[in-house]
Structures are given as C-alpha cells and as structure tokens.
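[agent] plan:
  1. take the single chain provided in the ticket
  2. run structure prediction with default settings
  3. attach structure tokens to the ticket
  4. add a short note for the reviewer (M.T.)
[agent] executing step 1
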Amino acid sequence: VAATLNVGVAHTTGRFLAFLDADDRWLPEKLALQMAVLRRDPALAIVFGYSRRFRMTGTVQPDEEMLDVLPGIAKATMLVTREGFLQVGGFTEATGAHEFVDWYARAGEVGLRMALLSDVVCERRIHQGNMGVVGRTDQQSSYFVALRSKLDRQRVRCAGDDQR
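[agent] step 2 finished; step 3 output follows
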C-alpha cells in the first residue's frame, strides 16, 4: 500500500494532497471545509476531520447501518499541503510498519501544525474485508512496529542531545 501511495504522490502536481481508500467515501463538503481552515491559517500544514463508520446490511436490498462518529486522525480524513507532506517524507515502505501511523508520528516529530475539524468529512465502510478485520493481528503488530520506530528515533535524538 505504501509504495503505491508514494508512486501516486510522485505523479501529482497540486499544492494539496488527500487520500481515499476504495471502500470509504468523502462527504461532498470535505475539501471545501478543510481548504477554508488552511486559508484562514496558512501556518497549518494538515487538517483532519471526523469520520463516521457504517456497515452495509442486507444482501438483496443493501442498506447502511450507521455505527459511530470518531475523531478522524486517518489518511482518508486528512488534507495536507504538498510542502508539509514532503517535509515529512513519503509513507514508510518498511516491512511490517503501518504506513499512516508512522507518517503521522513523523509529522509530529518535524513539528507540522495540524488542526482537527469537528465536522464529519469521511465515512468509513466496515465490512468483513477490511484490513483491520481480515488481518487484525498483523495490523495491530504494524502499529507496534511504527511506535517502536518512533521510540527508536526519539532515543537517537536524546542520545545526540546528551553528547552535546
């Protein structure tokens, strides 16, 4: 996934980047709401919004069951400036690391300014094929790999500070 995202980013030319997984959907006003925030505060590099989860029900007549609304610190709820994205670098392609969790941690480490809108900007479809359902153990493990990478970078910085 990370390699594909990085190739996609490399082929873009716009000033802003946004990502959407095939099984999720943006609400129509997502980008307009987020762009308004970026225009009001040019120091911001990232704007997130809330996400509403839903499940498809029924087989003959599909329907949707709305589940909950959560703060959406996720790729699908993010609008990021190209400059900010490039400052962080691409998504990690390291085996076993969760690409977005790692990227978000690095964004914080380089000091990118972020905002979280209280508006729902994305709907996340929950189904049996979700990577978090199919490979729950692998996904949880990938979160730990990303966290370990963050802690390793932090240790290196602290060791460098101690030597000064």
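[agent] step 4 note for reviewer: The beta strands are 16-18, 24-26, 46-57, 63-72, 79-81, 114-126.
[agent] ticket updated
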